[in-house]
Amino acid sequence: MAVPSFDRHVFVCINERAAGHPRGCCKERGGPAVRDRLKKELTRVGLRGKVRANKAGCLDQCEQGVTMVVYPEQVWYGGVTVDDVTEIVESHLVGGKYVTRLMLDDQAHLGDATEGPAIEPTPIVKGDATTE
Ligand code: FES
Questions:
Q1: Cα distances (angstroms) measured from residue 128 to each of 46, 77, 90
Q2: Ligand 1 neighbour 26 (Cβ under 6 A)
Q3: Ligand 1 pocket, residue 59 CB under 6 Å
Q4: Ligand 1 within 6 A of 61 CB?
Q5: How many angstroms separate the alpha carbon of residue 44 from the centre of ligand 1?
Q6: Cα 34 to averaged position of ligand 1 atoms, centre (Å)
Q7: Residue 74: which region, alpha, beta or left (left: phi > 0; alpha: psi -120 to 50)?
Q8: Per-residue confidence of the chain (132 residues) as pLDDT tens digits?
Q9: What domains appear along the chain, each with residue ranges and CATH number?
């Protein structure tokens, strides 16, 4: 079986900690729902097969709220809610423009960059989309 080639991987933290843990966790803050919405949005815009929505364990940014990171450009987002997902998909993953209002501070590796490559969506053939 051929290894798939994705343009981007999006890692969404869904880590779970015991109730009352001082750092909290992305599971209790809605990480799984964010990832589920991300998968649905990738299908909706035609990026399924080009962008992969990965589950991640703790990304060590717990205090920032639900955390995700987009590779290969390594753009980190924090405090992400399900209501932010459409903007991230349409602006960043399709259009290449980072959603700066959700970016974590101190991302020196990005320099002044606020954009990466755009990705041409694959048109959805009616009846061919799934929401796995
Ligand atoms: S639990 Fe999500 S970043 Fe740590």
A1: 11, 31, 21
A2: yes
A3: yes
A4: yes
A5: 27
A6: 13
A7: left
A8: 889 899 999 999 999 999 999 999 999 999 999 999 999 999 999 999 999 999 999 999 999 999 999 999 999 999 999 999 999 999 999 999 999 999 999 999 999 999 999 999 987 766 655 444
A9: 8-127 (3.40.30.10)
